[in-house]
Amino acid sequence: xxxxxxxxxxxxxxxxxxxxxxxxxxxxxxxxxxxxxxxxxxxxxxxxxxxxxxxxxxxxxxxxxxxxxxxxxxxxxxxxxxxxxxxxxxxxxxxxxxxxxxxxxxxxxxxxxxxxxxxxxxxxxxxxxxxxxxxxxxxxxxx
Length: 143
Known about the structure:
Elements: H1 3-24, H2 27-44, H3 49-76, H4 85-88, E1 92-100, E2 103-108, E3 111-117, E4 129-136, E5 139-142
Parallel strand pairs: 3-5
Antiparallel strand pairs: 1-2, 1-4, 2-3, 4-5
Helix pairs in contact: 1-2, 2-3
């Protein structure tokens, strides 16, 4: 196998490693593919098979050792942007119909919601501003 064949084979290997990356979404395959590209570059400069394989192994292992822990930490973080009902918690609403422990209506984020008081002994009158503590189904729990 001459030098041209070697770098072509490394690029074929990189492309072959890219297929399971796309199919399985496992980033490790991408790191191996980058290692194969690095070995192709080394092969293109005319280095021998031993140096090519060492380059592949070193680059792949280095990427896994460095990138994988960083990606793991980022995947475990909670999203910084609250969406859906999580975005409504802590918002202020205006009482449209008297709200007490058994129910009522509020205007929250431009929409009319059924609501009930967190403390069943308290009631909130029309026009009063309340804070949304929790969302249970389609009912906002307010205080």
